[in-house]
Amino acid sequence: VLFLIRRQIIRGSLRVARCVGLVGALQLLGMAPVALMARQLCDLLWFKLAPPNPGPNWSIASLLWERSTDATELRCPTERFWFWTRVWPSDVDLWGHMNNCQYNRDIEAARWNLLMASGLGKFMWNKGYRTGLAGTVLRFRRELKPLRRYRVVSYLSGWDQRSFYLEHMFQGVDGFVHAHAISTVKLNKGQKISPSQVLEQLWPGGDTGSSRWESERMNSGLKGLTELDTWSSVLC
Predict the structure, then answer these.
(1) Does the structure show a pLDDT above 80 at 5?
(2) What is the DSSP string of 186-216?
(3) Among 90, 89, 103, which Cα is nearest to 143's?
């Protein structure tokens, strides 16, 4: 009981500091670097001092935002995972809508939420399968206004011989998708395993009723993304 009381007090205090006054005031005063440091400090204290309830389904999103994925047990990563959040005053730029940097912060939390809630992240870590973020492609469709509530929906949409592709949708309460993004999570060089083999070990039998996971699953959008990666590699 004391643990729960302490956690709620800390969460409430840090939410006020992070979202209502301190960070936004520093930004308005032209102290953006200090504002960023203050925000990161609040997030760090929230993570360190107000941990979630013990269990395998915790997520970073449940610490920093209003609500975590509605999952009570580990689920297949190709299913939908989400968390609800809101456009706080400290997230708003001079144009009166959510700053583009905040989208990437939400995407980072969404990746953790999916990897942890599905068990994929913990499984790869325990097996020694190391990955890294290879890139994020983000498209804006409609702005998010201050205090607007939205959720970030994420799922594993495909993979090839080395990379997992995660899709993220910023969805308003009316269901409209305000922004869409794709994250490329790539297995590090030297890993003698493919994404399909990782999925087969964690979820034997596949997710479509087939006997096993296909070696690659690439829709037209993901194929276009790989062409973009090839093109940019030539430029570099």
Answers:
(1) no
(2) EEPTT----HHHHHHHHSTT-SSSSSS--S-
(3) 103
State the Cα torsion 45-70-183-91 to the nearest 10°: -50
Q: What is the per-residue pLDDT for 58?
A: 36
Spatial distance between the Cα atoms of 52 and 54, rounded to a whole number of angstroms: 6
Q: Which residue has the higher pLDDT, 169 or 229?
A: 169
For 41-50, letters b (16+ CB in 10 Å) and e give ebbeebeeeb
Question: Alpha carbon of 109 to those of 5, 152, 168, 220: distances in Å?
Answer: 25, 9, 11, 26
Residues in the chain: 236
Kindly compute the dihedral angle of the four CA atoms of residues 139, 181, 148, 171, in this order, to the nearest 10 degrees: 110
Q: Of 135, 200, 206, nearest to 166 (Cα)? A: 135
Q: How far apart are CA 205 and CA 219, in angstroms?
A: 21
